[in-house]
Design brief:
Largest sheet of chain B: 4 strands, parallel
Radius of gyration of chain B: 16 Å
Order of helices and strands of chain A: HHEEHH
Strand content of chain B: 15-25%
Low-confidence stretches of chain B: 122-130
Distance between the termini of chain B: 42 Å
Helix content of chain B: 25-40%
Radius of gyration of chain A: 51 Å
CATH architecture of one domain in chain A: Orthogonal Bundle
Largest interface: A-B, 59 and 49 residues
Strand order of the largest sheet of chain A: 1-2
Structural class of chain A: mainly alpha
Number of strands of chain A: 2
Helix content of chain A: over 70%
Number of helices of chain A: 4
Number of strands of chain B: 4
Strand order of the largest sheet of chain B: 2-1-3-4
CATH architecture of chain B: 3-Layer(aba) Sandwich
CATH topology of one domain in chain A: Helix Hairpins
Oligomer: heterodimer
Structural class of chain B: alpha/beta
């Protein structure tokens, strides 16, 4: 995977620093909340799992009793009730209602079985012989259906919770391992750039100060020289000579003087 | 946010069955069977003459029908179409494996419990209890 912890490409300004810091705070809070949600879902998951295991076992027992009741009924009422029952199928009188329950933020389906209460065609089965066995068998199977419906709703909530836990864990891991390091890297990059800009400014300032100081010193030096020359001139004038003029006369012999013949 | 498969809130959904004759007769006696106008039933009786293709088709049909909420399937029938049952991962309709008279319940083969086994290897649910 390329660049697991890169940083975002941003302009390193102070505003961006504030923005990215706010995002980091949001990511941290989201991470904590999602972790709590994942823990709550896992607790529910474990509970449902235990219930599923116990219900499956009881389901096995109940199916055994109902098969036994069916065998009794067949024995008593004759093998023909199979065909009678098969012929009698019209509309289902036992139906299932599905609702949604909200558990820790996840919508779980829940099944309830309803007896639609229509006249059961099978009420007259076994009227010839073995009516009581047939009714008992029917009661046993209705009980079995109850357990089965409960088991079905447990199973669907189990599967839905499984999915939900996987997505939540994926988000938690993504926040923890990708988003937060990226934001932190971006923050340190911006801080680094800001520091460097500050250092540049500081350096520039210092350099300019240095120039300025040197200029001032030079000026002070030349001012001092000038002042000393002034003092010397004043002294010379008092003695009747101008130092300057004396120098000029000396240097004038270098040029041709018309008054001098030779 | 996380509900791609919308779980419908329905008021009357049927229970489908793919099992051997005795089990289906018992459930029909209880009143679970439904035959609609087009003579489509919500059960399939599996005997020695039923082909695997028929069972597969019935399974696929039951799981795509909108009005079926639960599919009961005998465990030995489920073993015949194990790959279909194992690759089925929609929450609705729920697939339940029931034992039959000749084949008592075997938790080691149940598709849901075997998935659970991967998750909780410490408390091994499906590998027999002492």
């Amino acid at each position: 995977m390329s660049g697991q912890t890169q940083r975002l490409n941003v302009v390193p300004t102070v505003t961006m620093l504030g923005v990215v810091k706010a995002r980091l705070v949001g990511a941290t809070r989201g991470h904590a909340l999602l972790k709590k949600k994942s823990d709550a879902l896992t607790v529910q998951f474990r509970q449902i799992l235990k219930k599923i295991v116990s219900t499956k076992e009881s389901m096995g027992d109940i199916m055994k009793t109902s098969s036994f009741a069916l065998t009794e009924a067949k024995y008593v009422a004759g093998d023909n009730i199979k065909h009678v029952v098969l012929e009698n199928v019209r509309e289902a009188s036992l139906k299932v209602r599905s609702r949604q329950e909200n558990v820790a933020g996840v919508k779980l389906p829940k099944f309830e079985y309803t007896n639609d209460g229509e006249v059961n065609k099978n009420d007259l089965t076994g009227l010839a012989r073995g009516g009581q066995q047939v009714q008992q068998c029917r009661v046993a199977y209705i009980k079995a259906i109850e357990v089965l419906v409960e088991l079905a709703s447990l199973q669907t909530s189990f599967l839905t919770l499984d999915e939900a836990i996987k997505t939540t864990n994926r988000r938690v891991n993504a926040l923890e391992n990708v988003v937060k390091p990226r934001l932190e890297n971006t923050i340190s990059y911006i801080k680094g750039e800001l520091d460097e800009l500050e250092r540049e400014d500081f350096f520039r300032l210092k350099k300019i100060q240095g120039y300025k100081n040197r200029e001032i010193e030079k000026q002070m030096q030349s001012a001092k020289l000038f002042a000393e020359e002034q003092v010397a001139e004043k002294l010379a004038l008092q003695r009747g000579i101008s130092l300057n003029n004396a120098q000029n006369i000396l240097s004038a012999t270098a040029q041709k003087d018309e008054d001098i013949i030779f | 946010m996380a509900n791609r498969a919308q779980i419908p809130t329905k008021n009357s959904a049927l229970i489908a069955m793919i099992a051997d004759e005795d089990t289906v007769v018992g459930f029909l006696l209880a009143g679970v069977g439904n035959v609609d106008l087009r003579r489509k039933t919500n059960y399939l009786i599996v005997d020695s003459k039923t082909t695997v293709k028929q069972i597969e088709d019935a399974f696929k049909e039951f799981t795509t029908r909108e009005d079926i909420a639960i599919v009961l399937i005998s465990q030995y029938v489920a073993n015949m179409i194990r790959f279909l049952v194992d690759s089925y991962n929609k929450p609705v309709p729920a697939i339940l494996e029931i034992p039959s008279k000749d084949h008592p319940y075997d938790p080691a083969h149940d598709s849901v419990l075997s998935r659970v086994k991967y998750l909780f290897s410490a408390e091994s649910v499906a590998s027999g209890r002492r």
